[in-house]
Amino acid sequence: MDVLLALVVIGFIAWWIRYNQLYSSGSVKVPFFSLGSQSKAKRVRVAHRPAPRATTKASPAAQREIGQAVSKITTYTHNSEVSVRLLHSTRQANMSKSMDWCAEKVIDDILRDRR
Fold it and tell me: pTM of the prediction?
């Protein structure tokens, strides 16, 4: 009797591991331990993958301008990755403005948020 129970438990564990692998890969849409109706299972979040960025090369003058803007912002953020992200998001929101204007806006926003 104990051997039979052990085999059933081992079989269930093997099935459960395989099911979780299929769920992780997206082949199965409903998690095994979902509680409630099917509509709740649909709300399971999937990891967000950002869209690939365009890899266009900027001219040397534009690269120099971007580098200067990032270095200006970095004096306030102390992190170049954050500076690039802030400059990029501001530039996307204000495409018609110059790079210098966007850098000044980011700096003004940082100073405003510190108050």
Answer: 0.51
